[in-house]
């Protein structure tokens, strides 16, 4: 159920549209719908509750109109006249064949000359726009629901500063604003109202309770403006929805403006693995929403009336002063003539914390401060013959599907090894005045879904943006999807799992095999499986690590319907931390050293290395090479790199070390570093006292 607006003027007709649907959202026809128009009449009175005085509201529902509808495939409608200002509900009631009732409500508001009491906070102005969103050129009607029967105030229209402002007068508790909507205000503009009311008499308020003292109320509402005029409609049209590995994907991109005409655009195109994007929760970028986000009004409303004190009744005349001999000894600090510690009464109140006559402590009802507006993978059991001999596997699959070895072997096969998460990125695709561009994308060999994302900007009007996306799958009739560990340690044993997919329309007998380098396959290297059309099966191969380094494993599948092969590599690490030992000394005669091999050392790793030199500088080669090849060039690091090389200059001439033993190389390195340090200096420098003086330049 919906109405054409949420705010009406008294005397207008409210138009209602309704449909009847079941729990699945399917429309039901021929069902009777009883529609009632209900006005909420609210009254208020001052009452005392929990020791404080406040307003109590009572609301009564009054039926002021009705109509009967019969549901159809299209929305059915009726019109109801709203004759008085106030809050309304349209209530639609239906009854199903079993007697179950269903009720829907749609609230709206009416303004006019009648006085209205709204059930709301006394310090808040409720503002109700007549629409959820607006288009540039519209005129928004905003209902101002005032907590005061009569009030004056200020209207401020703001968007990153004041757009306009003007006075307003409220009578009968309601008023309306007319706000012109401009394209420059996309995506929002804020309307704010500050109302003030002078002192009034409140019926039922007891003496001493200043419930009608001067008060204020504020309210604000953001008017949302559609950014459709700023949107570039971008279509991403792949030539095919499925491509083979290494095929070229032809992509057409079309751009249109808000009116549907061809649009020039500068486009960035990305093709990324959908699985990775899903793990990240990544959505295609929407530059329109990013750049045309809600703007702050840049204006705040404040009012000092919240600090007004309540009016107090006249105090009774003071009692006669005591005789001099009866006067309290601390009269200079308290009493009628002394200054007490409280801020009420004569001269500070004469009722401090050190004695004296206490002053009357009247309750004050202070206005409250304004509140801000505010690939599931199904695990299969391992087939009993998964590790059996190849002949046995062939006999098993031959029961319902046969493998024509001659036809299968005649098919071309290539090893898939080109895997890429980001298959393509181009930030400079240009769409000309025709509104179209074509891109050719070489696809990788991942057997997965890729999301093609395009993000556009108008090169002539930089506030217009758009985006679009499409999905493309890289597929083969028979596909292998291996699942290996990310790494292995020397001595590890594991089962290499591979999912075999039959994407053909018929069941297939498939021969699956594996081989590799730096790997020991402990079972049969080939397995036969039968896979129904459109289904998958898992095949496992027991494996063990051969040596430290890189393990490469290949899988292949062969069938009448197609073939596939792929290769994966994983690192094999040392199983423990590598430890090194060294012995240094100086001698001028023959010496002997005894070396004891650690008992737990792995026999396949480690060794003995001997190096001898006539100088203790032999071990500095790595350190000097690190300094020379250091790639960061901020001033501090340049200086730290050059200083030790210059200090070692005389030593390097006598004992050649690394690449800077040559004097010419050291001088070239020093000149380059000095120029880098000079470039990093500014023309002035600040002293500790904050004064500025020219900086000395030294090289």
From TrEMBL:
One Pfam annotation reads: A2M
Which SMART domains does this one have? A2M (SM01360), A2M_N_2 (SM01359)
Which residue ranges have biased composition labelled Low complexity?
A: 674-691
Which portions of the chain have biased composition (kind: Pro residues)?
A: 316-325
Identify the stretch(es) annotated as Disordered: 311-331, 673-699
Q: Which residues form a coiled coil?
A: none
Q: Where is the Alpha-2-macroglobulin domain?
A: 422-514
Provide the Alpha-2-macroglobulin bait region domain boundaries.
125-279
- Official protein name in the record: Alpha-2-macroglobulin bait region domain-containing protein
GO MF annotation, one: endopeptidase inhibitor activity
């Amino acid at each position: 159920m919906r109405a054409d607006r949420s705010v009406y003027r008294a005397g207008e007709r409210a138009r209602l549209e309704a449909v009847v649907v079941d729990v699945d959202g399917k429309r039901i026809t021929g069902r009777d719908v009883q529609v009632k128009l209900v006005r909420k009449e609210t009254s208020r009175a001052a009452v005392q509750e929990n020791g404080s005085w406040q307003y109590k509201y009572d609301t009564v529902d009054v039926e002021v109109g009705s109509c009967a509808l019969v549901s159809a495939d299209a929305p059915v409608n009726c019109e109801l006249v709203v004759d008085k200002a106030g809050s309304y509900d349209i209530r639609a009631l239906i009854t199903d064949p079993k007697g179950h009732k269903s009720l829907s409500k749609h609230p709206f508001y009416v303004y006019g000359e009648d006085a209205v009491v709204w059930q709301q906070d006394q310090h808040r102005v409720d503002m109700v726009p007549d629409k959820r969103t607006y288009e540039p050129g519209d005129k928004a009607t905003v209902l101002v629901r005032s907590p005061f029967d009569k009030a004056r105030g200020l209207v401020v229209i703001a968007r990153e500063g004041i757009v306009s402002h003007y006075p307003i007068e409220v009578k009968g508790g309601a008023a309306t604003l007319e706000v012109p909507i401009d394209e420059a205000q996309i995506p929002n503009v804020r309307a704010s109202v500050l109302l003030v009311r002078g002192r009034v008499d409140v019926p039922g308020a007891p003496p001493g309770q200043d419930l009608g003292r001067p008060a204020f109320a504020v309210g604000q509402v953001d008017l949302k403006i559609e950014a459709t005029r700023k949107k570039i409609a971008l279509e991403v049209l792949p030539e095919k929805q499925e491509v083979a590995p290494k095929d070229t994907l032809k992509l057409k991109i079309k751009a249109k403006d808000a009116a549907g005409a061809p649009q020039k655009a500068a486009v960035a195109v990305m093709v990324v693995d959908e699985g990775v994007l899903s793990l990240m929760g990544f959505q295609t970028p929407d530059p329109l929403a990013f750049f045309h986000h809600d703007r702050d009004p840049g204006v705040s409303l404040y009012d000092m009336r919240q600090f007004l004190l309540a009016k107090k009744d006249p105090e009774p005349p003071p009692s006669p002063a005591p005789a001099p001999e009866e006067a309290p000894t601390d009269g200079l600090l308290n009493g009628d003539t002394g200054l007490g510690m409280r801020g009420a009464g004569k001269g500070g109140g004469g009722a401090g914390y050190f004695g004296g006559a206490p002053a009357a402590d009247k309750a004050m009802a202070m206005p409250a401060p304004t509140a801000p507006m505010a690939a599931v993978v199904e695990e299969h059991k391992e087939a009993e013959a998964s590790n059996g001999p190849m002949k046995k596997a062939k006999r098993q699959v031959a029961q319902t599907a046969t493998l024509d070895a001659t036809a299968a072997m005649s098919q071309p096969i290539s090893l898939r090894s080109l895997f890429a998460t980001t298959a393509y990125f181009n930030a400079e695709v240009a769409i000309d005045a025709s509104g179209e561009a074509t891109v050719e994308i070489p696809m990788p060999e991942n057997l997965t879904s890729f999301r093609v994302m395009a993000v556009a900007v108008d090169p002539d009007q930089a506030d217009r943006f758009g985006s679009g996306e499409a999905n493309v799958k890289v597929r083969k009739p028979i596909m292998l999807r291996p699942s290996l560990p990310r790494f292995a340690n020397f001595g590890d044993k594991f089962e290499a799992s591979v999912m075999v997919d039959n994407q053909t329309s018929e069941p297939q007998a498939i021969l699956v095999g594996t081989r590799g380098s730096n790997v020991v396959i402990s079972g049969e290297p080939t397995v036969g499986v039968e896979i129904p059309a459109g289904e998958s099966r898992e095949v496992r191969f027991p494996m063990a690590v051969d040596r430290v380094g890189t393990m490469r494993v290949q899988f292949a599948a062969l069938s009448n319907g197609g073939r596939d092969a792929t290769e994966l590599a994983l690192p094999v690490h040392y199983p423990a931390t590598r430890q090194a030992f060294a012995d240094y000394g100086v001698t001028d005669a023959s010496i002997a050293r005894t070396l004891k091999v650690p008992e737990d050392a792995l026999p396949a790793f480690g060794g003995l290395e001997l190096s001898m030199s006539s100088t203790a500088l032999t071990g500095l080669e790595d350190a000097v090479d690190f300094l020379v090849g250091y790639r960061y060039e901020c001033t501090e690091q340049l200086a730290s790199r050059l200083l030790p090389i210059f200090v070692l200059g005389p030593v390097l001439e006598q004992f050649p070390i690394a690449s800077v033993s040559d004097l010419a190389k050291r001088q070239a390195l020093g000149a380059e570093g000095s120029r880098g340090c000079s470039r990093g200096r500014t023309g002035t420098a600040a002293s500790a006292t904050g004064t500025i003086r020219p900086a000395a330049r030294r090289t």
